[in-house]
Design brief:
Strand content: 5-15%
Helix content: 40-55%
Structural class: alpha+beta
Strand order of the largest sheet: 2-1-3-4
Number of strands: 4
Number of helices: 9
Length: 211
């Protein structure tokens, strides 16, 4: 399989964690979101993903899957080892709810194209941009912290879809100097995840194209 990704992309980070948890070999293909005006806009990549987003997973037969959550669901349904979801419908709904709080409600407000619009089109300075970023992470983390229990991971004793989403979001929060002291449960889960090889190997710092 080929993963078209960018080393600092949160959604790409999720896909890398999923592939690593499943112990699936894959080839990195860098789609740099900044160089050359953004390589995601080039026709060659747009032919694979008309949205121009990363990640994009190309299967061995050439079939393309876009959207990180769809990629993770595909991996979980196709490779049942190390499941991303618990056994019962109620438990699975709970984990999906936590995952969507991050992937659907926090991350989209802080991704590259939104930040670029704020700075280029609306001409916000760095201080205002950072305030925007921190506000939406804080709003999301305030709610998420209340939803987490005392388990070592977001739900249960092993990583789930929610943990796969959480770790990249914490990475971004730290990058933009969000105060994480009000979120001891989030911090505990993140620390436990980063002890695992799949999360370590998938981190931006360990990406072959890290800058």
């Amino acid at each position: 399989m080929k993963l078209y990704d960018y080393w600092r992309s949160s959604a790409s980070y999720r896909a890398r964690i999923g592939l690593s948890l499943k112990e699936l070999p894959f080839e990195h293909i860098c789609v740099h979101l900044v160089k050359d005006g953004g390589q995601q806009h080039q026709p060659e990549y747009r032919a694979k993903n008309p949205q121009g987003f990363v990640p994009c997973l190309e299967l061995d037969d050439g079939h393309i899957i876009t959207q990180s959550m769809a990629i993770l669901e595909y991996l979980d349904e196709t490779y049942p080892n190390t499941p991303f979801l618990p056994k019962t419908p109620r438990e699975r709904a709970h984990v999906r709810s936590l995952a969507n709080m991050i992937s659907a409600d926090i991350h989209p407000l802080n991704n590259t194209r939104v930040i670029k619009y704020l700075t280029v089109k609306l001409e916000l300075d760095d201080q205002a941009k950072t305030a925007w970023y921190q506000h939406w992470i804080t709003e999301g983390f305030n709610a998420l912290e209340q939803r987490l229990g005392d388990d070592p991971f977001c739900y249960g004793t092993s990583p789930t879809l929610a943990d796969i989403c959480l770790v990249p979001q914490v990475y971004n929060a730290e990058r933009f100097k969000v105060d994480l002291s009000p979120y001891p449960k989030i911090a505990r889960v993140n620390e436990n995840c980063l002890k695992l090889d799949a999360f370590k190997l998938s981190s931006p710092a360990n990406h072959p194209d890290a800058e």
